[in-house]
User: What shape does this take?
Amino acid sequence: MRDATPQTVYLKDYTPPDYLIDQVELVFELDEQRTLVRAGLDVRRNPDSRSASEALTLFGEELLLVGISLDGQALAAGDYTLSDETLTIHRVPGDRPFRIDIENIIDPQANTALEGLYLSSSMLCTQCEAQGFRKITWFLDRPDVMSRFTTKLIADKTQYPVLLSNGNKIGAGNLDGGRHWVAWQDPFAKPCYLFALVAGQLECVADEFTTVSGRRIALEIFVEAHNVDKCGHAMQSLKNAMRWDEETYGLEYDLDLYMIVAVDHFNMGAMENKGLNVFNTKFVLARPDTATDSDYEHIEGVIGHEYFHNWSGNRVTCRDWFQLSLKEGFTVFRDQQFSGDRSSPAVKRIEDVNMLRTRQFAEDAGPLAHPIRPEAYIEINNFYTLTVYEKGAEVVRMLHTLLGAAGFRQGCDMYFKRHDGQAVTCEDFVKAMEDANGVELTQFRRWYSQAGTPVLEVEQAFDAGRLTLTVKQSCPPTPNQPEKLPLHVPIKLGFLAADGSPARFQYRGEFCEEATVSLTEAEQRFVFESLTEKPIVSLLRGFSAPVTLKIDRDPEELAFLLSYDSDTFNRWEAGQQLVSRIIFGLIADIQAGRTLTANPVLIEAFRAILADAGADLSYRALLLSLPDEGYLGGQMAVVDVEAIHQAREFVRLSLATALSAEFQRVYAEHHQDESGCFDASAVGRRRLKNACLSYLTALEKPDSYALAETQFRSARNMTDQIAALSAVVNSRNPAKADCLDSFYRQWQREALVVDKWFTLQATCHMPETFATVQSLMQHPAFDMKTPNRVRSLVGAFSQSNPLHFHARNGDGYRFLADRVIELNTLNPQIAARMVGGFAQWRRYDTDRQALMTRELRRIVETEHLSKDVYEIASKSLA
Ligand code: 7MF
Ligand code: ZN
Assistant: This one.
């Protein structure tokens, strides 16, 4: 139980700040346990303030006050009031600017929440988004207060030779007692959530970039000495991102220096602090022998994401935290475009949609559903969600689809020009899109305020060359939103003739092969003319809107689309639908106690994919992938974890059995002993070959054991090594214990590889997994204070191992609740993320519901519960 029920913050209560802070001068005397902070604030009354109060209230948490003065006069105890979360000065001048000087002490070593200033290994660093700056000093910690920062860092020169902060270095020098100082100035006004400092023994990997207008920018990546040889890919990704943003959005970098620091202890992926990004090492470090191809892709995506924030987030920022999707949805859309352009747009789109549908759709259908612009929160850190990020990106993508690439670009140009240097709202973004294009997006705005995933039901009628599609849209209720209004849904579509070729048609008088129609009504008809025969429809091409599509199709039609659809997304989607239907049929057989039989339509479809030498290799690997167990569960009225697993494994085994020669042939054709260069053709080769290996593993035969073990022992790149180890571990391969041991011994000094070792075991589907997970908790390398390690074991088990996490006896649930309670005091943000494993409890059978709600109640009743955990656990139960 919490000591007091925490406050809810509402969007409708937003008011402009009463004061503004134009300039901030910070001085840090850095020390692991006793850092002294001096802050000089140039404050003035906000002309837009709506209050008459003479008091100034600053936010501050876990700070020890040393002294405070106003215009150089020390304040007496009666001049101000301190609470756990605020400092209020009772009277400040209202008619002129004034200066506040504050001195306080913080303890970075005791900060295991990793918010504010903290210690990571032997390095000091900060994380201020969303509200971490208030753990550094008292301040108007809200994004609509934008200030110019000057920062002086003082520290021991041996322990902290490198001292970094935002902007340009303006001075440095030595001090007595082996200390030194460095001063930084950021010429751009920014909200304090973009402040950063870093101090430590770091090596610098340097390069440079010349902008389109000819300015030379110094690029610096700071890492610990043993990681200097793993920065090449991150640096190349940064240069690619800088060039791409110039070419695609006409946006150029604005400082002379861009720094990235990689730290081991980080609550999330990375942070876009102005001129000084701080990254989780996971999204910087890569060498072919330590990082997989998908690690390489994620690094490029995250480097791009943080770089793109320099415009979509920093130059134009958010007015308040309810507008988070303004910067995040937009920036995720930009990083998705970038990654697609860098590799294969088709493959990237499928990966993004797959993630959205498996995870964001679940969030949207559960007790934590919220619009991309939420209306209320208890703890803002809980709203860095898949909905705000991924659905937010889909909403931006729909604008791109509706306005076209050129119209969208004009809207962006107007947005950046109009709002440069401002803190704005989602409304301002949509308005710029409207004004630049002379269109009206009134109904479209509902995507910002309405939660839940819309369902489209489509019926078709064909008569005399004319096809009529009747589309109904509806949306299930979500918490606090029982009634839903129709949304503006762009539906991209095309038709296929009987021979698989595109069928031309007339829509609204124009001849075309593909069209984007706008669904705006609850029920609407679309008529397509001049068709010579009844076509096969291909709807929602490229996944043109984040909706669930319901349309009646038989397996033959799906197999036809899987062979012929010219839209790469829908071709893949047809295969997924086909496999899903077959799996649901098998689940029904399992539940009724019938024997299972292999499906010949599927086998022939897969035979064709394996034989199709033409297609892109990564894309072929995706066509061969089976829908994830979590995604399948999301489509069942009552999730039956065992039946899903059994049915999916049956499909895998029947395909492997029927096509074992084909899988072996494709494997052999693409298997090369390679040191692992990261180029599209090598990546595709590895992807396809390892997909084949995974099927062959299902056979549980000496040949396939040998294949996996040989690949494991001879692999010279992490993609092949981990794929082989996964094959070994997820089978009864006798070499399992030995391979796991040898992998650990080989990589024990590489934290990111050890994370993979934990995850592989935590996500294993073999029966001994829960016991393994428990014993791994006692492993010397396990550490509850390192978020990456917690995610690699506790997170992976509870979020990516449905079969064992949802074990009937409730062991998995008790295990997770115990970890949440332990983490609650160490790191509330990570603890709250872990509670997410229980959010979907209503979707399971009554026994499991009882077990999960018991654990949720045990969490809610814990003493000293953080706001973070309280909000997720109590909303999950509601
Ligand atoms: C790519 O958004 C996509 C999403 C907040 C922290 C990074 O730049 C960020 C930060 C969270 C969750 C996901 C991401 C980030 C954060 C992220 C990173 C790369 N402003 Br929390
Ligand atoms: Zn972001």
The chain has 26 helices and 34 strands. The pocket of zinc ion (ligand 2) is lined by residues 305, 309, 328, 331 (CB under 6 Å). The chain has a mean pLDDT of 98.
